[in-house]
Amino acid sequence: MTGSPEPAPDAPGPPVVGRGRLGRWRDQAVALGWLVAVWSLLWGDVNWANLIGGLLVGAAVLVFFPLPEVSFGGRLRPWALLVFAGRFAVELVSASLHVARIAVQPGYRPRGAIIAVRLRVSTDLNLALTAEAVSLVPGTLILEVDRNSGTLYLHVLDTHGPGDLDVARERTLTVERRIIRAVGATTELRHLDVAAPEKGNRP
Is the pTM of this model over 0.85? Predict the structure, then answer.
C-alpha cells in the first residue's frame, strides 16, 4: 500500500494571493487622502463641497496620471497625526500673518535665500510629504528635490542672517520628524533617534 508522496522539505509553499493587492490599495488610499487634504488647503476651507471635489479630483489624478509606486511601510498613529495637524495649522496661520505684514509694510524689501536641507529619512514618500508640507506654509517654496541624497532645496523669504537660515533648516527637519512620527515605520523612528545629534547640519 503506497501513501501519497510527502512534499520535499525545500518545496515552496503556496503563493500568497491578495497581499500585494491589499498593499497597493492601501497606498492608493493614503495618496488619495493627501490629495484631498492638499485640495482643501488650496481652497482655504474645509467643507463637504471641497471634500467631495477633492475626492473626485484626486481619484481622477490617480486614474489618469498614475504616479510611480511608492510603498507605504509605516503605520498611522492617530495622536501623532493630530499633533502634526495642530502644529501645522498654527504655523500656517503664523506664517500667513508674517507674509501679510511684509506685504503691507511700506518701503520694506525682504531678502530671500536658498538653502539645502538633507532629510534624515530619504524615502520617496517622506521626501514628497515633507516637501508638500513645507511648500504649503507661506514664505517657503521648494525649488528642487534631490532623490539620490534626500535633499530639499528651499527658497526662504525674509532672512536677515545665518541665524534665520539655521531656523528655517531646523523647521524643515522638525516637519520631517512630525511626519515620521505620524506615519513612519518603526525603523524610520529609530533612524531619527540615531540622527538626532546631527540635526541642523548643512548638507
Answer: no
